[in-house]
Design brief:
Blueprint: E1 21-30, H1 36-47, E2 50-55, E3 61-67, H2 69-80, E4 86-95, E5 104-106
Parallel strand pairs: 2-5
Antiparallel strand pairs: 1-3, 1-4, 2-3
Length: about 110
């Protein structure tokens, strides 16, 4: 039986890990047409990073990654050693953290 007037239990908020940062990254090299975004989403979710990744018209891939610096570096390192991907260089800078973000996704 449903109780429509039942008091709702609030969903606990996820606290940001101490030292969390958000970094805007631009990957240059052979990063389109090689499964980069798919692999980035998979690796980021396994490592525990939130954010997004997308292709740009100039052949680069842009990513916003949120997590500790160590986790973000682990993601970049993982992508560097994946088959078919060749990262020549990465441009990046820190941007404000998005505390409500909960996942890592591919965007268009």
């Amino acid at each position: 039986m449903f109780h429509f007037n039942a008091k709702k239990t609030p969903v606990p908020s996820r606290e940001l890990e101490a030292g969390t940062i958000r970094r805007h990254l631009v990957f240059h090299g052979r990063v389109q047409g090689v499964g980069f975004r798919y692999r980035a989403v998979d690796a980021a979710r396994k490592i525990g990073i939130t954010g997004w990744v997308k292709n740009e018209y100039d052949g680069t891939v842009v990513m916003e990654a949120q997590g500790t610096p160590e986790k973000i570096n682990a993601l970049i390192k993982a992508l560097r050693y994946m088959r078919y991907i060749q990262i020549d260089w990465v441009d990046g800078y820190d941007i404000p953290v998005e505390p409500k973000e909960r996942s890592f996704r591919e965007t268009y």
